[in-house]
Amino acid sequence: MSVPATDDTAHGRTGRGMRLTLRIWRQPDAGSPGGMHTYEVEDISPDMSFLEMLDTLNEALILRGEEPVAFDHDCREGICGACGMVINGQAHGPERTTTCQLHMRHFADGDTIDIEPWRAAAFPVVRDLVVDRSAFDRVIGAGGYITVPTGSAPEAHATPVPKPDADAAFTHAECIGCGACVAACPNGSAMLFTSAKVNHLNVLPQGAPERETRVLDMVDRMDEEGFGGCTLTGACATACPKGIPMPSIAAMNREYLRAARRTGNRS
Amino acid sequence: MSTPYESWTTGEPLVDTKAPDGPIAERWKRRRFEMKLVNPANRRKHTVIVVGTGLAGGSAGATLAEAGYRVVQFCYQDSPRRAHSVAAQGGINAAKNYRNDGDSVQRLFYDTVKGGDFRSRESNVHRLAEVSVEIIDQCVAQGVPFAREYGGLLDTRSFGGVQVSRTFYARGQTGQQLLLGAYQALSRQIAAGTVEMHPRTEMLDLLVIDGRARGIVARDLLTGRIDTYFADAVVLATGGYGNAFYLSTNAKNSNATAVWRAHRRGAHFANPCFTQIHPTCIPRSGDHQSKLTLMSESLRNDGRIWVPKKAGDHRPPQDIPEDERDYYLERLYPSFGNLVPRDIASRAAKNVCDEGRGVGPGGQGVYLDFADALARMGRAAVEEKYGNLFEMYARITAEDPYERPMRIYPAIHYTMGGLWVDYDLQTTVPGLFAIGEANFSDHGANRLGASALMQGLADGYFVLPATLGDYLARHPHTDTPTADHPAVHEAVSAVTERLYALLSNQGDRTPDSFHRELGELLWDECGMSRTEAGLRKALERVPQLRAEFWERVRVPGSGETLNQSLEKANRVADHLELAELMCLDALHRTESCGGHFREESRTEQGEAARKDEEFSYVAAWEFTGTGRPPVLHREHLDFAHVHPTQRSYT
């Protein structure tokens, strides 16, 4: 498709695309050492998403007979949570959004961009920019649900939920499980991820029967998976593309203490 | 080619032997009562494979495991939480009648049959409407944070094409929240050991042994290992085939391989030409475009759609005076205006762009203007209602929709066609079931907004778990197939050889370049409007492109590691076969209906004209070989409860 010159002017674009130097972490598999490799790309449109810029590189690499850079991605709408890379030292890059929703207009012609996978003990690198985040699934499996076998649910209006509680639940339920919080944390902690789910369910009346076991089991699992401890740096909430708030962690700590006191056998 | 693909033949009519008769409101109840049950103690002896973890697959896997079956489940994503159901924005319909506005199961049934332009089965749609109310109960109990009123009760909103307020929603992220509910229920079963979950594993073939679906061949995407998995029944919940068009609102890795491989193994493919084009997507910004993003159609409640009256008018919108603008939907459809149904709005946008009056890069866009709404409601009210959508638009386009009209253009969004299934959701291969978007069953030729989530969860939570039990009770298996069975050996060899062929080809084109070319061809000839000449042209070109693909594709790397080029090439190969069937189906159906618009079949006003006498049937195609003419099996559709009428919106 050709782009008429008049429209370029109307949209404030220059005629030529950007030229960039990319330094990308390449690692053939989990067991092999990796390193930064340098690539040049040109004719990058400011309207491209970051992943479309990488598509351009990969198309060129294939034609040169080289293996393209592996990265996770799927919906490219900022909701599935599949994509994520550390761009110039920041999880998901300079804007507070997912990598797929970051656009090249936030970079300048001639820039050098460093691209690395999430770095965390609990997220081993699988290949290039792809990491293994299955620890998150196991944290959810430890208690991030409400036990309600299909068909056993009461009529939806049987239990009204005060709007502020419903809204609070939604705020925490927005987590997309991308792992940026863990990648941004100097300790590789998953406190924000875990607290988002604990608070989503514990604030609702439907979640009350499993309130204590949920928080105790999820936190235990989180520790077993090798995530680091929380020192309240706030890096997680700053990196979170969905704006899960920092007080979420404090609320989970409160839930944890309450549960530990009530059950009396854990702390 | 000795036999042109177009010379398809007609086979025996297809009869849905599971469809009960009697009063329509009693049919599902009756069918359930007639079903044979599996003794709870015997359920763990049955293994069920579920492919896919979206709303349909996730809910089915969790429910079957709760019931006591042994479930082995697969998804290509790194986690079952990421399936593309997650991206659905608007909401989920249910006939709760909480608004006391006259809604009922009967009305939801009626709206859905009519919205589907009278090409769906009445029995199935009625069951869907009945089950809709249970879905909301189930999801609320799971902790899905639906929007609520200050009194603590659930809020609803109205949605395209209906006169009641029956859409439940969770801001603009209803799909995400419903999926997380299903994913959490599934996670509970995985942790309990009742579901054996295989993420990053892709189904590449179906194992049919002694006429029954008995397993799948799948590839571990990290190690490249090809494995066989055996079961007593196989459930496909693998979504639609919108990505055949390359540019669509689907996730990048959504693909048709599972359904196409099943089709090649004997599952008939129904109504492949019924594809839905959504009118309000963000237009492409250049050749680099990798996918399209949907903007909720609720924007059409307050935005006005227009293009310049003059072709080739490249002035910025604010410089185009009022009397030189064409608010074409308001002009053509004065009574519905900007709120005409999806298919009508999409075609009208295409028409004005074809006349050279489109706006933005490439002239592929129309304005959606909120200037009047901002003046009438004030900025705060517009922000309250549409803030998150405006923000998303600004992030993608770098244009401020408060200052400058949005640019929108239609895009492929959903596929109504899919594997043919009977009332029990079983395909023509015994023991193979298809649920959610992967089947064809409930939406006819056009799906209504907020009905996809409803169908996915209806199938997965309530319908399939009941009907699958009946199949298992009637077909107890005493044996477990083994890897040395000839059918297994043949399937594994075919999969392995195909991957080897892709890897060893020393070609000069990337898999994506073929996918883009196929997508453009389909969009032009089998997209928003279709003609006999265009479809014949596409039917000539698709096999050529397929041949070129196998000659010229290049896939670097090996099959023993994570190789995303190989995954992509393998999916494109299947899209190149499916595309041919889509075009043939569109060619054979010389009527217009719903999302399928044949330019030769229109009313005097230029709208879609159905031909009920000739085409009141489901077209189920039987595979006979790659590029060989398929066999058409017609399933006649009866409308005893909703009388077919011609739609008019002028």
Q: Care to describe what's here?
A:
The complex is a heterodimer of chains A (267) and B (650). Chain A is of the alpha+beta class. Chain A folds into two domains: 5-127, Roll (Ubiquitin-like (UB roll)), CATH 3.10.20; 133-263, Alpha-helical ferredoxin (Fumarate Reductase Iron-sulfur Protein, Chain B, domain 2, Orthogonal Bundle). Chain A has helices at 5-10, 50-63, 134-141, 163-173, 180-184, 191-202, 211-224, 235-239, 247-263, and strands spanning 18-26, 35-44, 86-87, 90-91, 112-116, 125-127, 130-131. In chain A, the strands form two sheets. Chain A has a five-stranded mixed beta sheet. Chain A has a two-stranded antiparallel ribbon with strand order 6-7. In chain A, a hairpin with an 8-residue loop joins strand 1 (18-26) and strand 2. In chain A, helix 7 (211-224) crosses helix 9 (247-263). The radius of gyration of chain A is 22 Å and the shape is elongated. Residues 1-14 of chain A have low confidence and may be disordered. In chain B, helix 3 links the parallel strand 2 and strand 3 (70-74). Helices cover 36% and strands 15% of the residues of chain B. The longest helix of chain B has 25 residues, at 564-588. Chain B is of the alpha+beta class. The model of chain B has no long low-confidence stretch (mean pLDDT 95). Chain B has a domain at 278-413: Succinate dehydrogenase/fumarate reductase flavoprotein, catalytic domain (Flavocytochrome C3, Chain A, domain 1, Alpha-Beta Complex), CATH 3.90.700.10. A five-stranded mixed beta sheet of chain B has the order 1-21-20-12-18. In chain B, strands 7-3-2-11-19 form a five-stranded parallel beta sheet. Chains A and B meet through helix 1, helix 2, helix 3 and helix 4 of A and helix 3, helix 5, helix 6, helix 11 and helix 12 of B.
